[in-house]
Design a protein that fits this description.
alpha+beta, 3-stranded mixed β-sheet, two-stranded antiparallel sheet, elongated
């Protein structure tokens, strides 16, 4: 161990796949499950001291809570691409609880997002008689 955050050598690590529809709670749960699996797989080498260390290739990504909170506050006048906006909302969404906040007309609101993959479907727009066929592109 070293005194700096995310600076010491690595004994074991693994990659966690994050899908485009994963919200903060899903990303967190994936990391917790993988941390447990990785610890169980690594423990025997720690116990018998047969582990090997290797240096980090990248600087760590430690963020202070104040920095995260600043990002979570949405500016109603800022322009975002749809992807930026959805990504920002989804990584801070934990279940029904919105992770981002926005102030509109003097009131603060919590904002969350839910992404669900859809295939071809028929949608009837209220006030029309003709169904609208939509198909998602991949």
């Amino acid at each position: 161990m070293v005194s700096e955050v995310d600076a010491g050598p690595i004994i074991s690590q693994s990659r966690v796949r994050v899908d485009k529809a994963d919200t903060g709670v899903v990303i967190y749960d994936k990391h917790v499950r993988e941390s447990i699996r990785l610890f169980q797989a690594t423990w025997p080498s720690l116990e018998d001291q047969s582990y090997h260390v290797f240096p980090q290739r990248h600087k760590g990504t430690f963020k202070k809570i104040a920095q995260a909170n600043a990002v979570r506050e949405l500016d109603p006048d800022q322009r975002y691409t749809a992807r930026e906006f959805v990504d920002l909302l989804r990584v801070f969404t934990f279940g029904e609880r919105g992770g981002c906040t926005i102030e509109l007309d003097g009131k603060r609101y919590s904002v969350a997002v839910s992404l669900n993959e859809v295939g071809e479907q028929t949608v009837v727009i209220p006030g029309t008689r003709e169904p609208l066929r939509t198909k998602t592109s991949r």
